[in-house]
Amino acid sequence: MEVTVSVRRFDPERSEQGSYWQDYGVDVEETASVLDSLIKIREEIDGSLALRCSCRSAICGSCAMRINGHAKLACNTKMTEVVSEENKITVEPAGNMPVLKDLVVDQKLFWDKIRQVSPWIRPVGEEPTGEYLAPNEDMVHLAGVMACIMCGACVSDCTVLEVDKNFIGPAALAKAYRFVADPRDGENRSRLGILSEYSGIWDCTRCYECVEVCPKDVAPMDRIMALRDEAMGQGYDDNYGARHTEVFTQSVSHSGWLNELMLPIKTFGMFNLPAMMNMAPVGLRALLKGKMPSLFHKPVPQVEKVRRLVKKIAAEQKKN
Amino acid sequence: MLEHDVLVVGAGLAGMRAALAAHQKGASVAIVSKVHPVRSHSNAAQGGINAALTDRGDDWHEHAYDTVKGSDFLGDQDAIEIMCREAGPELISLEHMGVIFNRDEEGRLGTRAFGGQQKARTFFVADFTGQAMLHVLYEQLMKAEVPVYEEWFVLSLIVEDGVCCGVVSMEMATGRVYVIRAKTVILATGGVGRLFEPSTNALIVTGDGMALAYRSGAPLMDMEMIQYHPTTLTGSGVLITEGARGEGAYLLNSKGERFMERYAPNMMELASRDVVSRAEQTEINEGRGVNGCVLLDLRHLGEDLIRERLTQIVDIGMDFAGVNIIEQPIPIRPGMHYIMGGIKTDVDGQTNIRGLYAAGECANVSVHGGNRLGVNSLLDTVVFGRRSGEHAAQTAADIEYVTLNVESYTKQANDRFADLYARDKSGTRWSSIRLGLGTEMDKNFGVYRNEEGMQSLSRSVRQYQEEYQNVTLQDKGKRFNTDLVFTLELGFMLDCAEAIVAGGLDRKESRGAHSRTDYPERDDENWLQHVLVSASSEGPIVSHLPTVITQWKPEERKY
What we know:
The complex is a heterodimer. Chain A has helices at residues 34-45, 79-82, 108-116, 136-146, 153-156, 159-163, 170-180, 188-195, 209-213, 220-233, 240-255, 262-268, 273-288, 303-319, and strands spanning 2-9, 20-27, 64-67, 70-73, 88-92, 99-101, 104-105. Chain A is of the alpha+beta class. Chain A has a 5-stranded mixed β-sheet. In chain A, strands 6-7 form a two-stranded antiparallel ribbon. The N and C termini of chain A lie far apart (52 Å). Chain B is α/β, with parallel strands linked by helices. Chain B folds into 2 domains: 1-225 and 340-552, FAD/NAD(P)-binding domain; 230-334, Flavocytochrome C3, Chain A, domain 1 (Alpha-Beta Complex). Chain B contains 16 helices and 21 strands. In chain B, the strands form 5 sheets. In chain B, strands 1, 2, 6, 7, 8, 9 and 16 form a 7-stranded mixed β-sheet that branches. The longest helix of chain B has 25 residues, at 482-506. Chain B is globular, with a radius of gyration of 22 Å. Chain B starts with a strand and ends in a 13-residue tail after the last strand.
């Protein structure tokens, strides 16, 4: 199969020319991965093409890059699944991290964030002479998170990190979950406290991108949501994120729909002057465009049904 | 100057375990690795780690016996006793560090069966035990704040007056050369899989540490002992875990027969790897294969078990062979997987060069002898990694740094680069030599070998070595020049090839993985000994050492 691999290249020794696209024509087998084509380029056409790769079987996490605009592992992405009708693909370095050369990015930011969550087990009490006892279901569940190979695909395509570099990010939060959910770890309360702070679990916007791009089905966003539940359950509800969730739920269970006017006021607090001042321009613009929510928040018709539904969900949650 | 009491080269399981142990002994320790630690090839170990736990009714003597027998009686029994005795405590300490491990119904560590062993004593994390351990060791390394020179490539060892006192290394991101001074150096660089094409091994597995030691005067031992794994995918050579057979998968030939009945009637699919690989190769050679493969059949295990315990190979089957292993048998063949041979060390990881240690696949203690049992490799890495780290830390505590002429070492390396960069771009590249060499190694040093094939291989290796003298680069840049890195790696691989072929030609018998069609029998009278290969300007020099036997006398090996 003849394919055109269009690579976004960058030579740090000619940084003034910036990044540029280079097309390579390669002949690969029908079963070839994108990585096979890149290796072929490197070995047979252009030895100056830089990329990281090693295991070729989606376990070392070296070859995360953007293929046709989305983060993927080059090694487990089949060429036939991504080529266009003109037999063309584009390959770019992973996003949200500085490019060192061609497809090689600097992962310092990635690892700094991992370190931020104290990523090691912290048992309390005396160490047993044998192993810690732990239910197999818990371990199998954790294996789903430990399956993370730290490839950085989720960080590359995280839409929050794109605008806020302080966000701990999907990979590190999934890693944090691995300790919070480990029955052997004794610090899960303090971990949840720290994670509930600014740049932590409440900064995720639930865009789902990290779940989509994760090559190992770690589902980072789902782990972040689990951390939110766990944090609120343990009483970490005195922060914007948790209050936002509370107010949201209250409003829907009371009137059947969201009270948009009260959501920010209750989340930030009526007397939180700086926050209220920040909101003022938005409110003003909404008013001018005639989009200011009504001061009188009327329940939806048949609101009783919504309330019953909410009660039912709450009861279910309690059971679990 | 950069300096550390203990410098570990390589950040796989052996390297990180060594670094942690040295750190716990109070040494200042650092790791230098050509890839980030979690990219290391220990990741690929799928099946698990062996340990005989007494509270589970197991006995380390039995594990040791299985290992001795698996090694075809070439393993040194004093070293095997240490490994099997220390397996239990080491496993528990890994669990305490945070490795999750699958459990039994009472919440204790659960086991699975593995090849060549009488008892199920393999502890595991689904089918990514290596990754689960590697990531946890890195967690501990972060906790201990052990510095890592990430993506630094070691060019040579510094040995002065018979003492190893550091390394010369290149920071890949900048291309700058640095001397790192150390009181002790531990090599933990893994195997040399990429010398063979195909291989289950990652692209980074290029025998760097073995060659570094070999060039510095340390002998390599039993390098002819190359393990062909029974279940690898055709083409890419990607590995299917032995855990699949541990869970009960069958091997079938083109007639649908479980052919292992003829070769190992008791252990069947779970005989030692060398035995199973030979059986498969014989089936294929005698015309009962399927397109150069035999079939691995998991269908009767059922979807639930496969999905819980063999998660990764469901994906591997789909991604790399287009086969749904739940519904279809998957074609597999023996493929190069591991090298039992390596830098000769004692049970504390010491080589013949003072201050130089080795652990893990690059070392040969020797616990695997002629054939490694499945999942003894992870055990080897952590037990001897720890022992090396502890010993190196103690040694370092008693000695001072040596004064080094840093400029002369960096100049030497830079001059070599300058020479490489000055050549025009049109000559032979690393990639063509590597492919040619790898293909010939697989052909003439595969499951079966003979004098003629190995002699022709020996000539080829010399030819490639000559060609390598004029190898050229396409990338003339300084920063992240992988063209340069692969070229340097190829130099290491050629050294390893030389030692492997020398060992293979020397050992005139069939033992373990070394199956010679011209000497088909094991010959205990003449060859119950190790083959050591040392470098010299006139080519490799071979010598011998007797095998250490403590309690298990050699006997016929039947499964």
